[in-house]
Amino acid sequence: MAGVSDQIGRGGEAPALSNVPVADLLGGSLTSAMGLLAALFDAQRTGCGRHVDIAMADAMLAHAVVPMLTLAVHGQTRPAGADRLSGALPCYSVYRTGDGRHLAVGALERKFWDRFCDVIGREDLKPLHLPKDAATADSVRSDLAELIGSRTLAEWHPPWR
């Protein structure tokens, strides 16, 4: 009902369900804890109790900041995998490794992208941090997919650890 599963996965595929109970944690536990703490704080100040009403769907909708902003600006959300934070940018995506596992690249900030390019030996990709068009993004993503897919996840273990 909150539209979250529509925003998970890749466009054209069935939505992926997380094995992390996001609605339970954000919508139930975290929202309940915040409500209870606010009620306790208010009770200490006023001496009055409060009724704390928690709705998981409401809380999930409140946490769907990016799709809600996209809806407000463009009149519709983008398909899963088509916006900056769900895979449209090569610098913020998930790539399959040579052993069939996955490596997440989260280099939205330029300094992190530049460091990532240094680590993988692809300094030539530095200027393509935020590609100007889909064709360039696809080319960078393809290069990264090929490179990351050439090694196992263990081989990609960061050298600075």
Automatic annotation (TrEMBL):
<dbReference type="InterPro" id="IPR003673">
    <property type="entry name" value="CoA-Trfase_fam_III"/>
</dbReference>
<protein>
    <submittedName>
        <fullName>CoA transferase</fullName>
    </submittedName>
</protein>
<dbReference type="InterPro" id="IPR044855">
    <property type="entry name" value="CoA-Trfase_III_dom3_sf"/>
</dbReference>
<dbReference type="InterPro" id="IPR023606">
    <property type="entry name" value="CoA-Trfase_III_dom_1_sf"/>
</dbReference>
<dbReference type="Pfam" id="PF02515">
    <property type="entry name" value="CoA_transf_3"/>
</dbReference>
<dbReference type="GO" id="GO:0016740">
    <property type="term" value="F:transferase activity"/>
</dbReference>
<keyword id="KW-0808">Transferase</keyword>
<dbReference type="InterPro" id="IPR050509">
    <property type="entry name" value="CoA-transferase_III"/>
</dbReference>
